[in-house]
Specification:
The chain has about 120 residues and is mainly alpha-helical. Helix content is about 50%, strand content about 5%.
């Protein structure tokens, strides 16, 4: 799981730097939050180990990195659907991570493996 987190952190930093943000490192706390959020969203079966979860999530590294970048960009507006500051107003589709990103992640609800 640690190598997955490192790869996602590196990709999220690269995405952020492409938007002309002057950032040297990407906050690990955001990566941890996104991984935890995604893990809960995916409803992995209880018998899945951390390695199983990491393998499933590793197919979506770019999406998870974009989710990290999205959470980072909402700094100061955490948990809000809209934010206004210094005559700049922003509206968000979701308070945390948009469903467009989350819908691409695996979801194990109502699959035979969860009925064990």
């Amino acid at each position: 799981m640690d190598s997955l987190k490192a790869e996602i952190r590196e990709k999220a930093l690269a995405y952020l730097q492409e938007t002309d943000e002057d950032v040297d490192t990407f906050p690990q706390s955001i990566v941890d939050f996104v991984i935890e959020y995604a893990t809960e969203y995916c409803h992995f079966p209880k018998h899945f180990t951390d390695d199983d979860i990491a393998a499933a999530l590793s197919r979506n590294k770019s999406s998870l990195a974009m989710a990290c970048q999205e959470v980072y960009s909402k700094a100061g507006a955490e948990g809000q659907l809209s934010h206004s500051e210094n005559s700049i107003s922003r509206g968000y589709k979701s308070a945390w991570i948009t469903s467009d990103i989350l819908n691409g992640l695996p979801n194990f609800v109502n699959t035979p493996s969860t009925l064990r």
